[in-house]
Amino acid sequence: MTSHSQVLILGGGLAGLSFAIAIACENPDSDIVLLEASPFRSGSPNPLDTRGSALNLHSVSLLDSWGVWSDLRSAAGAIRDIHVSHRGHFGSTVMTASELNVSALGYVVENHELGQHLLARATQLGITIRSPVRCSAIRTEAGTPEIETDEGEVITADLVLLAAGVAPDWFAQLGIRVLERPTPNTALVFNASFPGPQSGRAFERFTEHGPLAVLPLPTLSHADQRYNVVWSVSNSAATVLGDLDDEAFRNQFQDAFGWRLGRVQAVGRRSQWPLSRLSASEQFRAGFLLVGNAAHTLHPVAGQGLNLSLREAGLLAQEIAGAQQRSAPIGVLASLKTYLDQVSGEQRLVVDSTDALATLFNRRGPLLDVPRDASLALLDLLPAVRQQVASVGTGRRYA
User: Fold this and answer.
1) What is the distance of C-alpha 215 from the center of its chain?
2) Rounded to 5 degrees, what are φ and ψ at 317?
3) CB 392 within 8 A of CB 106
4) How far is CA 171 from each of CA 36, 148, 177, 273, 283, rounded to the nearest angstrom?
5) Average pLDDT of the residues of the chain
6) Are 54 and 215 in contact (CB under 8 A)?
């Protein structure tokens, strides 16, 4: 059995669904098919076992234009200010939404909520969603991109988006290499609860091993506040921390983070992954386009991975619309060159910026540590500079 679609998307995660919705909104007559290898989950996890994503203001604007944000807004927690500090050193600063004349610097949304709202909107837009369907092979020799499923079905398309993360087997079939740059650090990710009502303050705390991000999750009760934590530690420390029971782990986290939110009441399920930088040698090959984490895997220090994917989804949707208005094929390099040039430049900027931020506060000795800590303290005294830094983080440079 063989079928054809205009745009075929492999991967039904947050990135894949976002690209499908963006293209459908910009190109209402497009025939879009999305395949996801695993069944979509329903229901809500334990509040301490959820995962969250930070959305900057540009991402919120995109989701609003795609008809997603109006329903999602009630499930989002606002980041009203961000406290930046360096553990064991002087100097800190607070970036506030009021300095930029906005209601929030960004929002934190639990991934299961975002995923469910994206799936509902994709269905509403008439996007064909098939799950679970696994792609077993991709081919280019026929002159038109095509894939084969485990069931032997062949699907051809004008353009295929690979949105299932880094997939070495698929990349190898396209002649695309996976470039890996290992780091000595591991990310520990978990939720933690603290006493008191949610204030909407996010924390970016730099330690000797790397950054510790503590992001406010949406409020469930006035008695306690939940935070999503991304803690970068050395690989050896990750092994030790991974073997601790919850009480001992809470104590270690408390020591690293401090007491700004009071005593840590509880931690949820912990997960960890090596902070290796993975990238593809190319993002386009013969009608196949890599998007989302397949195209770029960022350090989580500034929470920019999903924001970059949403930005790229909006740009690609516009590029496809332009090609269709010119009656040009959408799956050829000539139609995608402007998109590829723009996103590759932005990816380099974001990757370099997050890598620099991730290592900025590593110990380098007093000749470098003291001026750097003084700069952080000075940032607190210079509102104009602080506003500029905060504005970049919100994504307002794209407005």
Assistant:
1) 14
2) -60, -40
3) no
4) 18, 15, 7, 22, 10
5) 83
6) yes
